[in-house]
Amino acid sequence: MSYGKEILRGKFKVYLADPAIAGSVLLKGRGLLEDESRLGAAAETAFFKHVFARYYQTGVSFSYWRGRKNLEVDILAESNLRLIPFEVKYSRSPVLESDLKGLRILCEEEEIPRGYVITREISDFGVVTFPGKVEAAILKIPAPLACYWLSRSEGRS
Q: For the ranges 16-20, 31-35, 146-150, which has the lowest average pLDDT?
């Protein structure tokens, strides 16, 4: 697969073991809940923790993708030479197709048939399709449901 150089470009990404650590260390308290970008980072970390716990026994490896013009995909799982992209868009407004440019480009370049967008609002659920060499189906799943489903299956292969 050719995504290696793209991933290595740019800055490193760190996931804490617990999304509450950053707020605790920085003594932000309730400030985390009032800051949209910090709350989004905490949601991304919580989701990653669930994906990792669910799949670590299967030999999956994790990274992220950063392409041209600072486009990125938050979590990229690789299992059996198959790429599974996850984008976390934790905002109050519905996720639009235009918000998924990095995910669309990655799916097109690597011919990835499906990916996932983790959303904030429970009503922001559905499928977005991107035409291309391989039509990519992107499933939008609200974070509470995604984390619940993953936690119910943790430890299973």
A: 16-20
